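WARN retry 2 of 3 for item q-0093 after timeout on previous attempt; input resubmitted unchanged.
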Amino acid sequence: MSEKVQVGSVVEGKVLRIKPFGAIVSLGEKTQGLVHISQVANSFVQDINEHIAVGDIVKVKVLSVDEASNKISLSIREALPAAPKQTQFEKNFRPKEQKSNYENRTIRPSDDYFKPQAAPSDFEEKMKDWLKQSNERQAGLNKRANKRS
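OK item q-0093 returned
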């Protein structure tokens, strides 16, 4: 098995089966390996079926070969061509309208916090209504308790 497949080599294989945890890829007649779901794409993979299907021919990189248990670990993600690297200027550059994004907003979240509160008379009216409702509820509970005893 190790004569055909070397760790670090990139080979083509055919997807034989798809499981929730990964895909079984055939590398030859008698050689198969597992591509774990975390090694399918550069982004998060919720459903492996969205990225590959049974019968697809994929390029995989051999991560490890375990002769004792006859297992081969593969990665589609590491076989992908490297993304072009951004320069330091591109990383730090943002268009001007995005820089002043917060300044252009007409309503800031803190505006709600600093709104003037209700006038004392409104508060007193609300407290009177609440106290009246509370007393009515308590009177109703007391009547029920007296009927039972």
